[in-house]
Amino acid sequence: MKITRIDAHDRFEHFTKQNFDISACCQDLIDKRPFGDIPFYIFAHARTIGMDEKIKLYAQRKFKSLEEVPEKTIIWQPRLTKPEAQENSMLFKAYPGKDTVKVIWMLPDRRLWDSYAKGKMTENKTISDSIYDFQNNKQKLEAKEEDDLCDEKIKKIYKEIMQNLQKRQKSEPINRQTMV
């Protein structure tokens, strides 16, 4: 297959613009301050979209045809602890109130790993290092950071969040239309 110089440029432009989506999603979570001013992890991982969700997205006219609805979506999860490193995921550490986001790992789908190698158009040192660590030193990716909270503090924060959620649910009136 021959790729023209213009086509290669368009593909490269598309690839590099994806970084803006990542930073926008991270910034959105940071702005929401899910844990106040406490540094937290942002775990982004792929999840397969079920047929019922695909039909719902199509019915909302977000896509022209059912075939255009993607197979997967990315879940952006704020958390206080590191998850287990896994393929097709990204982990960042955010510091609310600062302009700092630390990349812990960026692991694409295993089928794409070779495309990020040195000398390729999509070469990326962060991704290559993440793949190497995943294959050779997974414990490094999953190790606690120096500025992580202790387990007791994390449990206390999660308990407070759960209590506030339960209080809010009790105080909200029941909407009979949604109960079917």
Helical residues, percent:
40-55%
Poorly predicted residue ranges? 14-20
Shape: globular
**Strand portion, in percent?**
15-25%
Structural class: alpha+beta
Overall pLDDT level = 85
Strand/helix succession: HEHEEEHHH
Continuous helix count = 5
How many β strands by DSSP? 4
The description of the largest β-sheet is:
4 strands, antiparallel
Q: Report how far the terminal alpha carbons are from each other.
A: 53 Å
Strand ordering within the main sheet: 2-1-3-4
- How much is the radius of gyration in Å? 20 Å
Total domains, how many? Answer: 1
What does this entry look like structurally?
By secondary structure, the chain is α+β, with helices and mostly antiparallel strands. It has one domain. Helix content is 42%, strand content 18%. Strands 2-1-3-4 form a four-stranded antiparallel β-sheet. Strand 3 and strand 4 form a beta hairpin. The radius of gyration is 20 Å and the shape is globular. The model is unreliable at 14-20 (pLDDT under 50).
List the helices and strands and how they pair.
Blueprint: H1 5-32, E1 40-48, H2 51-59, E2 72-79, E3 89-95, E4 100-107, H3 125-136, H4 138-142, H5 151-171
Can you give keywords for this protein?
180 residues; alpha+beta; four-stranded antiparallel sheet; 42% helix; globular
